[in-house]
Amino acid sequence: MKQADEESRRYFLKLSSMLSLAAAFSPGTIAETFADSKFRTTRKENIMTQTNATGTEQATDKTAIRPFQFTFSDAELADLRSRVNATKWPEGETVADASQGVQLATMQKLARYWGTDYDWRKGEKKLKAVPHFVTEIDGLDIHFIHVRSKEKNALPAIITHGWPGSIIEQLKIIEPLTNPTAHGGKAEDAFDVVIPSLPGYGFSAKPTKPGWNPVTIAKAWATLMQRLGYTKYIAQGGDWGNAVSEVMALQQPPGLLGIHTNMAATVPPDVSKALAMGGPPPAGLSPEEKFAWDGLADFYTNGLGYALEMNNRPQTLYGIVDSPVGLASWILDHDIRSYQMIARAFDGKTEGLTRDDVLDNITLYWLSNTAISSARLYWDTRHTLPPGGGFFDVRGIKIPVAVSAFAEEIYQAPKSWAEKAYPKLIFYNKHDKGTHFAAWEQPELFVTDLRESFKSLRSA
After folding, report:
1. Which of 66, 62, 72 is nearest to 369 (CA)?
2. What is the pLDDT of residue 390?
3. For range 108-121, the mean pLDDT
4. Is 115 contained in some domain?
5. Is 132 within a domain?
6. Within a domain: 160
7. Residue pLDDT, tens place only, 401-411
8. What is the pLDDT of residue 60?
9. For residue 73, what are the CA distances in angstroms to 121, 128, 133, 202?
């Protein structure tokens, strides 16, 4: 049994090497990416509408920045509620904890609220309160929120969500970042905020062929910032957002000053190797490093099931397209600490995320029908990039990096690892609370860190 457990761990680790970057960026590749750019830099969006005042269709430049609107019908919401209330339930788990997966009691509490009192229109109103746009990049419509600060020297930031998140993750930070004087900050703390939906997520178009992975997304984000007229900016992200931001740092597109991450990739080679072998941790780890090891070892042993399926067979997930409760349980089962925090919210012990927060995100996945299209990012990353390091392995970033390390993330990156991983580490802050969804769950801490991170770069 012990040998089988070790073989299972090695298999999980092998398949968890989802982000491969080894051959991606020669100087020639970088030059070719930007040499043929045909988009004029301008500070003001070039907004093209699709109809004129009489409703007659006009020729539209799809690569222009176009306003985007959305709505979902009452019939769609009624269908969702009906499906939730008609859920066919299994028997409960045979253990007293979550070791077999998302627990029946939690899912039934979620379903009761979702099927009766939950109101999507409240969440939709929050989404509609910010301006939405779309532009075509490499043949795909990319949706994004764009909010400019009234402060003239605001620092542009492109902020990327992950899975199982969405643009809803970042809604709480938009106002404090763009209007700092109304939220405990100073005018010089201001940011312009760009929040794109990953391809296949939310309101972005769904790729119809393979190839949309962190490398191509990072290039697309640089194109987006160029189209918006930004000549200097920073990138931020966690989860896939970290992968995209770190790849941008490797690509070094013109104007990228630095990045901030709340899920840093800092695992040293000896630690990564020991995890892959299923053996004991390397000798000499500090208490902070051992805490990080414990989080990683638990995640790789017990928490990678969702990633393995999406790496290998995302199209098989028809059940989470047909069943709202199936989708909800799949989304909740990301990592044990965020799951426990969400479960407590449905027990009436809100800490960071409310029941409505959680269901707003799940409902957006449902209404946009993106359960499988979002999952394909895992498949694309594994199958359309050359073999390389694991998701948390050091990548050799040479531009300035800022790190926020939250206590209940998959692993809390130690400062000692961050200093080695990022030679130009300009900021590090360790928090004693906060799970995987930092901007969503701990917006005040997140905003404070982001303001502090880039003070030194604003005059660059």
Report:
1. 72
2. 85
3. 98
4. no
5. yes
6. yes
7. 999 999 999 99
8. 65
9. 10, 15, 21, 16
**Tokens 């414990």 label which residue?**
294
Q: State the residue range of the domain holding 159.
A: 2-51+57-69+120-457
**Residue 460 or 447, more confident:** 447
Are the C-beta atoms of residues 233 and 210 closer than 8 Å to each other?
A: no
Sheet strands (E) in 256-367: 256-261
Q: 387 falls in which pLDDT band (50, 70, 90)?
A: confident
H/E run at residue 137: strand 132-137
Split into its structural domains, the chain has a count of 1
Share of the chain above pLDDT 90, in %: 83
Question: Hey, what amino acid is at 422?
Answer: Y
Q: Give the amino acid at 127.
A: L
Q: Which residues are marked as active site?
A: 239, 378, 436
Query: What gap in Å lies between CA 84 and CA 78, rounded to an integer?
Result: 10
Residue recorded with tokens 């269901």: 359
100 falls within a domain: no
Supply φ then ψ for residue 380, to 5 degrees. -60, -40
All residues at 6 or more sequence positions from 358 whose CB lies less than 8 Å from its CB, including other chains = 110, 332, 342, 345, 346
Q: 286: which 2 tokens?
A: 């500090």
For range 94-117, the mean pLDDT: 98
Q: Identify the CA nearest to 170 among candidates 139, 141, 201.
A: 201
The domain that contains 221 carries what CATH number? 3.40.50.1820
**Residue 277: what pLDDT?**
87
pTM of the model: 0.89
